[in-house]
Amino acid sequence: MKLKNHDHIAIIGGGPAGSLTACFLLEMAQKMNISLHVDIFEPRDFTATGPPGCNMCGGVVSELLMQKMAAEGISLPKSVLLDGIDSYVLHTDADAVFIRPARAEMRIASIFRGAGPLGAESQRPLPWTSFDQHFLEMAMNRGAQHIPRRVHRLARTADLKLQVFLRPERGETAGCETPSDPYDLLVGCVGLNGSGIKLFDDLAFGYRPPPSDRAWIVELYMGDEEVHRRLGNAMHIFLLNIPRLKFAAMIPKGHYATFIILGRDVDEELANQVFHAPQVRQLFPDGWHNPVRPCHCQPRISIGSPQRPFADRVVLVGDCAASRLYKDGIGAAYRMAKVCALTALTRGITAQDFKQGYWPACQSLERDNRLGHMLFAVDRLLRHFPPFGQALLMVIRDEQNRPQDPHRLGSAIWDTFTGSASYKNIFVRAAHPVVVVRLLRAVSKAIFTRIRTGRQVQKQGYPHVI
Amino acid sequence: MLFNGDKPMLGKEFADGETITWAGESGDCLYVILEGRAEVLVDDGSDAPFRSSILEKDSFFGEMFMFSEGPRVATVRALGPVRVMSIDKHGFLQWLAEDPSFSMRIMAKMAERIRTLSAEVVRLRTVLRTRVPHENA
Predict the structure, then answer these.
(1) Is residue B115 in a domain?
(2) What is the reported pTM?
(3) What would the pLDDT profile of A239-277 be if each residue is shown by its tens digit?
(4) How far apart are CA A191 and CA A336, in angstroms?
(5) Which residues of chain A does B8 touch, with a Cβ-Cβ cutoff of 8 Å?
(6) CB within 10 Å: which end of chain A, N or C, has fewer?
(7) Does residue B136 fall inside a structural domain?
């Protein structure tokens, strides 16, 4: 059962996963001389500032995705790109190190998913445009129809096609739902936040969303000059020994700096601990106080695998199905949207087709994420051992002083946060014998230095505290 | 900054007349033109290299190095300010393994270039035949 001429497809959710699925379906179908009718149901207005127009995300387009889009002829207009990022600064408890790839080129972009943070409306006309709106318009330009309504319920028809019931709007009689015409394929791109994910319970095909955790994202207005003076064109990563913290990041975004905290059960207490860490404070202007009510969200992020994100004529794409751990969510949506479109057009739209064509790609991401979990677990363990932090920075600096060196550790850390390579690839480089030997040597040097410094302090005596 | 005031832009910028890649150098990446135009110059042994084509926005060059080894055959120079993004060979081959459809656009472009070259060979042979008729006798 493949998609054929004049088939109707409903896509629930018009974020990047939904818009890209529509784009790929329409583009590939055109090459196969198939005419499809694609409806995207998205009630959110991406031209609105603050939560009504935002899909809650750190807003970084990875190096990998930027390159893929450039190669496939998908260009992002200047107005969507807030800033270019060409380097990372890694802050640990011991010190900080600047990581820059050998190729001096900006290949990472920061963007706003909606029209910008709450309060930005005072700057209208806004000097930037929404990333999600751009992709939605791209899908519409390729022939998709945007239906700005919230879906209330899903059901199957007698011939097992899908029907969409819209939530009544103001002025319409409550409970008086009008079913849509039957759809041949239903694609769920509902993310993990919001009620969209519950819609698929109606269809009872055994889908269970991936386990998730909450991130903490806050947009801080500092002014363009201050942001670039403090952060430069670099994304700042904090690997600090704070309980429950995986890592925190600060991203330059025009007049704003986006602060992201990832960890276990991130709450206000953890956020305060991170904000008050000296490594973080030094990046803020003197006397900085966080705004009383900044634009802030705590979105759910996927940290595991879903169960059965497909059925006959139904498939889920994006965060509600498979994503990459802690990075490159938009890049993962791009890849999965393409695999989904390819499966539906070349293999078919039954559960068996999705199991053979789409599910292996989800599982491949999941297998790679397991290695990511392992890398972060090792990192957490070693953060309790301060000489390791020093050794890590020592090895990266040592690599930077060797122009012919392949910079295995530096590039592995770069790729961990840029999303430029799989966790498997990163793992292979980080566990390379040369890196391990250098790290062990640097750890013993760090321990020796600590012991020597400690003895000197003991000889000189500790300063008196009055 | 050449393009957008003081806003840092993606890719790498080249000023008018600046060489992006040199003929003879070994290549390890593909370039996509994000903004501006560039000329492709081929050395034919005469005093000055001749311009074989002009590349516009969204065009790419260096694609042959994604599939084969050897030095670059042409020099690519900026015609006005140009912004390009490079794609490393290693990453390119990895994506290709994950998603073979990724190469469709590049293969289509290569096919188009082969078609243009074939037409050029036919044209040159015709010119040659009219100038040196005894060779074909």
Answers:
(1) no
(2) 0.87
(3) 998 988 989 999 999 889 999 999 888 888 999 999 999
(4) 13
(5) 83-84, 86, 106, 233
(6) C
(7) no
